[in-house]
Specification:
heterodimer; A: 384 residues; alpha+beta; Butyryl-CoA Dehydrogenase, subunit A, domain 2; 3 domains; 10 strands; B: 11 strands
């Protein structure tokens, strides 16, 4: 289907697709097995300028937006949803700076991201996931510094990233309104990383704890102002959810590609299984659902790029629908490949394992439904 | 360090079909790409620029659509591109092609190194590179797998041989043909692609490069293709089985029989 991309977006798509096909796809299984972070691929992505697609031109980027970010995330994920996360997770870590950074902060950090510096976003803790208000990490002001203490959990790109945007409590008594956002660099004293988590899927993506022990962060690294942390996080998610959705669409498309190709080659009862209506109908549903998810991804991404004031509902819809679709399509792809699909020698079981996380992170799909419903009701009240 | 890279646009297939009537390649419906070996020459040219400064000019002789290959070369880091194109060039063999390219290279002028892929994937002759150096009367080194260093107006290069490699030194300007061992070509960059989109490719015809009309196209081509055919597939060899000593004896006897 034609999503009416402009010339620049088509160029981004062409290049991302080429890198996915020629560089990522051939090593996807290897990195899934070794659970290593694909630095060689990150270098290729950096050299191709793709890290900067959503960074403004004045900070060394291409000047695109969420649409460009989604195009790249989709194409990379079609080859490997985990390696794609090196790029997409960097986006998540960068959006707070993009949305709330001062010109100084943007100059200092966005220029580095545009050149391929990996970033990470740190909000989740052992007892604070969807309930971001119960964050325990603290930031205490002392002279020209904030002193951070606490442990962030399941942080994508942790240990690999140089730039971390961290949500910590500057005033616990105020609850969610007492949270603030900081930019922390890997080299700062008091930043350490926990063990690498062993995961079901996206195994080539680094997931670790980020531990702050009396970590001295210069006060100029506070994003926006004290108390804005929760809002920074929520607005970040509004912008980043279409990216997760794009990752999910890429995973679904990758699995669908494999299922179609396999069904044409696999012969049973003297004919290719693609000639059986049972298989055809499965493929037709998978393709239709994937395309519908893609339409929602790019519609919501365009809405974010247009500067619309409230995009929470739409970006939640895209994330919810695309990730549920990815799960369903990848399960069906495994089914079409049958016994072969269940084997690690074939690529579809990996797509299925990678798909699951898209229903969980950056807000579980249950939380997405809450967001959608809350906005629906709010809109209805306003219309009264 | 000014580098000139010569490239050819070829059909993107290893399964080239030949028209049995005209004995020429069937190009219809086949996507055109930069000759894979030339991609290494482009990459090496860009790396030389990164190592020593200067600029990279990419040249192709071919039909108007070869402009796409030249623009792709710009997206990969080349600075300027020249398309040498004229109906009068039709029917050129490797001699006429290398003459034509040498005329274009003279017009570009001021070069230190000319890089070519070791051969084109469609014709497989490996003659155009050496032909250019002959027409320009400059030294050539073929099958280069590494450019070790360039200084004092001399290049030190490794030439691949069947047994290993030779280390050779040649004065500049010189022509090098490169093998795939020399590098791993990079992916294009977005900035390169945008530059390529707006890049102006110079288009030169026979008159522009002051080529001798008798030396170009079919008239300038001493080669006549009598017949092109697909060789029959090789028959499988004979496998001798048994005890090692017995196998050795039998093998020696067989070799004696066919008289080495």
């Amino acid at each position: 289907m034609d999503y009416l991309f402009n010339e620049q977006q088509k160029m981004v798509q062409e290049l991302a697709r080429k890198i996915a096909r020629e560089k990522i796809k051939p090593v996807a299984a290897k990195y899934d097995e070794s659970e290593e972070f694909a630095w060689d691929i990150m270098k290729v992505i950096a050299d191709s300028d793709l890290f900067g697609v959503y960074i403004p031109e004045q900070y060394g980027g291409l000047g695109g937006g969420i649409v460009e970010m989604c195009i790249v995330a989709e194409e990379f994920s079609r080859a490997c949803g985990a390696i794609a996360l090196g790029f997409a997770g960097t986006g998540l870590g960068t959006f707070p700076i993009l949305l709330y950074g001062s010109d100084e902060q943007k100059k200092k950090y966005l220029t580095r991201v545009a050149k391929g510096t990996v970033a990470a976003f740190c909000i989740t803790e052992a007892e604070a996931g969807s309930d971001a208000g119960s964050i325990k990490t603290t930031a205490r002001k002392e002279g020209d510094y904030y002193i951070l203490n606490g442990t962030k959990q399941w942080i994508t790109n942790a240990g690999e990233a140089d730039i971390y945007t961290v949500i910590a409590m500057t005033d616990k008594s105020k609850g969610a309104r007492g949270a603030s956002a900081f930019i922390v660099e890997k080299g700062m004293k008091g930043v350490e990383f926990g063990q690498k988590e062993k995961k079901l899927g996206i195994r080539a993506s680094a997931t670790r704890e980020v531990i702050f022990t009396d970590c001295k962060v210069p006060k100029e690294n506070l994003l926006s102002r004290e108390g804005m942390g929760f809002i920074v996080a929520m607005k970040t998610f509004d912008s980043s959810r279409p990216g997760v959705a794009a990752q999910a669409v890429g995973i679904a498309q990758g699995a669908l590609d494999e299922a179609v190709a396999y069904s044409r080659k696999r012969v049973q009862f003297g004919q290719s299984i693609s000639s059986f209506q049972a298989i055809q109908h499965m493929l037709a549903d998978m393709a239709t659902q994937t395309e519908a998810a893609r339409a929602l991804v790019y519609a919501s991404a365009r809405m974010v790029d247009s500067g619309a004031k409230n995009v929470s509902k739409e970006s939640a819809m895209a994330k919810l629908f695309a990730s549920d679709t990815a799960m369903k399509v990848t399960v069906d792809a495994v089914q079409i490949l049958g016994g072969y699909g269940y084997m690690r020698d074939y690529p579809v079981e990996k797509y299925m394992r990678d798909a699951k996380i898209t229903q969980i992170y950056e807000g579980t799909n249950q939380i997405q439904r809450n967001v959608i419903a809350a906005n629906l009701i709010k809109e209805s009240i306003k219309a009264d | 360090m000014n580098v000139i890279v010569c490239i050819k646009q070829v059909p993107n297939t290893t399964d080239v079909k030949i028209d049995p009537v005209t004995n020429t390649l069937i190009r219809d419906g086949v996507e055109s790409v930069i000759n894979p070996f030339d991609a290494y020459a482009i990459e090496e040219g860009v790396r030389l620029k990164e190592r020593f400064g200067g600029k990279v000019t990419v040249i192709s002789m071919g039909p108007p659509q070869a402009e796409n290959a030249l623009k792709e070369a710009i997206s990969l880091g080349c600075d300027e591109a020249v398309l040498v194109s004229d109906r009068k060039f039709a029917g050129s063999d490797t001699w006429a092609t290398s003459y034509t390219l040498s005329c274009a290279i003279k017009k570009v002028g001021n070069y230190d190194i000319i890089l070519c892929g070791k051969q084109a994937s469609d014709g497989d002759t490996a003659q155009v590179g050496p032909g250019i150096s002959t027409h320009l009367d400059i030294p050539q080194v073929t099958y280069v797998k590494k450019i070790e260093d360039i200084k004092d107006n001399k290049a030190r290069v490794d030439r691949m041989t069947e047994e290993g490699y030779d280390v050779l030194e040649t004065p500049l300007p010189c022509l090098l043909t490169v093998v795939k061992e020399i590098n791993t070509p990079r992916m294009p960059s977005l900035k390169g692609m945008m530059k390529a989109k707006s890049a102006q490719v110079a288009k030169w015809n026979a008159g522009d490069i002051e080529a001798d009309p008798k030396s170009i196209g079919l008239d300038g081509s001493p080669t006549r293709v009598v017949r092109i055919f697909t060789p029959p597939p090789r028959k499988g060899g004979e496998i001798i089985k048994g005890e090692t000593s017995q196998i050795a004896q039998e093998l020696v006897q067989l070799l004696k029989d066919i008289v080495i």
